[in-house]
Amino acid sequence: MSTGHEAAIEHAYQLIEAAQGHDDPAAVERAEHEARACGWEDVRLLLHMARSLACLEAGVDDTEHVNAMLDTALLLGDPDLLALSIALKALRCASRRRLATTGESAAALLVEAVVLLDEADGTGLVLHRANALIEVACVAHELGFWELAQEYYQLTEQTLAPPQPRWAETIRRQARVVSINSFDLALDWASCLAGIGQWEEAAARARTVLAVGDPTDAEWPPGWVGEVHGMRHLLATIAGDEPVPAEGRVAALGAAITAAREGAAETAALLAVQAGDDVGIPLPTGTKLLRLGIAAKRPGTNPEAIRYGDELAVLRWNDRLDRMSGMRDAIAVERRRRDHEQLRRDLVVDELTGLANRRGYQAYLSGLGGDVNLSDEQAYAVMMIDVDHFKAVNDNFGHDVGDLVLARLGQILALHVRPIDLAARLGGDEFVVILADVHTDIPTARAQQILDAVRTHPWDDLAVGLKVSVSIGVHHGSRRELPALLTDADRSLYHAKHDGRGRVWAD
């Protein structure tokens, strides 16, 4: 990765943070122009995220940018960026569920993102992984899967912990996001426990983040500082600890919580009404419901209405626990399914080259034979391919270089086949390519392209003085003749080798 690319990634993360309150569309467009010119698709994905967040701030639909992130992530094939994009889509679905019951399942998307992060091999960029982990935690929080959210914030902290001098500034910004989100999660969680009368459990939950102290410093955005201080005040009142100073409606709500905790229902109710819905900082849903529950107990409220609200709060809590258990099961099932898929892939894929192995080759032939939608007269072609003097490569350069040669050949062959074709390693240095539904003049031309690609490949990258060539035998005919084509292509390969190697022989 070039220095310019690294700087562009860091700038994109700055723009993502700025989009949440201090959006700079012109800066995003300048960054987009540079990323497009340089082919930095990962940077463009991050810029779509910045635009998405700016849309949310402005109350504008951001679907276009979320979909663009997904399309780019699929193109890049980076599991961390794909998990990030899917998690962001899940978060939007989760937010919309308050307004509608249609659309994709946010929970199903969350499961997919979680398992994708499992599959990441740890070689990706730490910033992208941390971003994806944070987004997964946000979705889990929004859906009420608080235990999962807490786990993923902790995973993010572990990911960011090793020193990364090159990315130190961006890591500090991501750590700030984890910090403020963890306070928000703890306040939501503790408020719901307080709402069902579980004050001791609520206090314990509140103290999990109060023990951290005040994480803010001069580098924090002022708005975030105010939010953290307000949340710390409310958490301290839930815990029954000495609250940090607060003013205005936040202080009124804190006083209401303190009175409710001490059993002074009437005083608590009056203070909760005084605080109102807008206390000057964003409140999580659990805290809003706690205020409403306290306010509902003001003098004159029908006791049956109070009982109704209390029982609903308990039902919501129990439903959350059931859904959390279901989410754990869904993640476990998806992990097992992915593991089984990987085992099946391992059975039919050659580990060294990434092409099909002999089992995969046989499965392909069996699939063709059993497909009733294919005509027996459909045109097929077979290439049999051998590396010229491969034993000499192993003898002169070592078996490690020999393995690298085979791996490179696998990459070259993969570039010259379509999804309906097959490229397979049958064993050793023997490869086969089956071309489906091709005109008679195509197979020989394709074989020549492969031959030229091998001949011109920079083999010196692997070992000084290394040269590699292949011999290719080609035969074509109908699907019905496919078993004979394989034999005939093998015979053509013999002629190519006998005629001097490094050539194509087609019958």
UniProtKB/TrEMBL annotation:
Catalytic class of the enzyme: transferase
Query: Any idea which UniProt keywords this protein has?
Result: Nucleotidyltransferase, Transferase
The EC number(s) this enzyme carries: 2.7.7.65
Q: Which InterPro entries match?
A: Diguanylate_Cyclase (IPR050469), GGDEF_dom (IPR000160), Nucleotide_cyclase (IPR029787), Rev_trsase/Diguanyl_cyclase (IPR043128)
All copies of the GGDEF domain together span 378-507
- Region forming the signal peptide: none
Q: Which Pfam families match?
A: GGDEF
Gene3D superfamilies in the record: 3.30.70.270
Q: A single Gene Ontology molecular function, please? A: diguanylate cyclase activity
Name of the featured protein: Diguanylate cyclase
Q: Which organism is it from?
A: Actinoplanes sichuanensis
